[in-house]
Amino acid sequence: MGRRPVIGVMTCARPKHEKTPEYLELAVGQKYMQPLLDREALPFPIPNFGEQTPFDAIMEQIDGLLLTGSLSNVHPDRYAGDISAKSYPLDPHRDACTWGLLDRCIAQGKPVFALCRGFQELNVYAGGSLDQMVHEVPGRIDHRSPTSSVPEIKYGAWQRVEVTPGGTLAQALDSSAPIIINSLHLQGVDRVGEGVTVEATASDGLVEALSIDRAKAFCLGVQWHPEALPENPVSVALFDAFVAACVDARDG
């Protein structure tokens, strides 16, 4: 048996304190790393320094990349969007780091699993755009989390999505039957990127999962938070498929 697969986990560059916003700290929730540890993978928090990130050195160490969710949003400049109070908070360091890593992961055939903000990054990376307040868009339902401080309610599965038959998501689930997932997002896909396959949609037609056609390895983004429901069968299948793909990349 070879070494554990090493999986890069995206960090966010956040102000350490509101009184000193120029001082940033790199942060990632433990909940994103636990499903990897549970599958005997080694999470590698990405040293995110924006454009100064040591991309090639990182790529020598990792077998795959997990793009996490975040309170921050993709900068509207990335998709020629308007910037307003609705756009914040932003994290341009993360945007730059993500773009650099995606370039390399896709070119080198290393798996990518993108969650929530990561899913939105994947779409914008491919040339797509975002709606900054989905619930304000005519014809869209409210995709924000239920109003509750109880984790089982806030992060619980309640939204039905249709899975595209034959796609990356359907293959990971070994089924194209509809699934029930959680939903906790303000922003969402407006224009789908080039060379992107829509892997799942909500009842209002909003894209809930997508893949990058030119990727040589597993490359899937989901708008929901499988890490918040680690024992849910859908979450289990997705993390299993991602880590297995990282093992293949390690051994390849």
Characterize the structure shown.
The protein is 27% helix and 23% strand. It is built from seven helices and 13 strands. It has helices spanning 30-37, 55-59, 92-108, 117-125, 151-154, 168-173, 233-251; strands at residues 6-9, 12-17, 20-27, 42-45, 64-67, 112-115, 130-131, 159-163, 179-181, 188-189, 196-202, 207-212, 219-222. The strands form three sheets. Strands 4-1-5-6-13-12-11-8-9 form a nine-stranded mixed β-sheet, sandwiched between helices. It starts with 5 loop residues before the first strand and ends with a helix. The model has no long low-confidence stretch (mean pLDDT 94).
Give the helices and strands, then pairings.
Layout: E1 6-9, E2 12-17, E3 20-27, H1 30-37, E4 42-45, H2 55-59, E5 64-67, H3 92-108, E6 112-115, H4 117-125, E7 130-131, H5 151-154, E8 159-163, H6 168-173, E9 179-181, E10 188-189, E11 196-202, E12 207-212, E13 219-222, H7 233-251
Parallel strand pairs: 1-4, 1-5, 5-6, 6-13
Antiparallel strand pairs: 2-3, 7-10, 8-9, 8-11, 11-12, 12-13
